[in-house]
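Annex B. Sample input.
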Amino acid sequence: MVIHLFAVGKPKLSYVSRGIEEYQKRFPSTFPLHLHYLKASEPDKEIKAFIEATPKMRRVLLDETGKNYTSRTFAAQLQTWYEQQPLPIAFLIGGADGHSLSVKKESPHLISLSSLTFPHEMALLLLVEQLYRAQTILSRHPYHRD
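Annex B, continued. Sample output.
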C-alpha cells in the first residue's frame, strides 16, 4: 500500500517537522509514505493542484466535518480501499481556510481526525502518526494498544 500525503504549505513549526521526520523513518518499505507540499492559495486552486497531482489515486480529504474513525476502523478502511482497488491513496490537508463547500460535496472520501479544529500543521503530524499506527495495526505490530 502506497500513501501520498498532500499538505497546503510546508510546516513552519520545528517540532511538527521533527515529529513528521521521526514517523517517516519508522514506515517500512512495504508501506511507503510520500509527503508533498502544495503552495498555499485559494481553496479552489489548492484542490485543483491536488487533483492534477493525483491522477489514478484514491483521493481522501481531511475535514472536521468528515467521517470519524477509531484507529482500528481507520486501519481497516485503508485496507478495504486498497483491496477494492489497489491504487495509491492520496490524503489532502487543506490550508488555513480548509476546503470549499463545493469540493467537500463532490469528494467521495471525507474524513475527520477529530471534531476539534486543529491548525493544518498539527493535523499533518496527527495524520502521519495515525497512518503509522494503521500500518502497525495491519501488520500486527504491538505499537497500538487497546
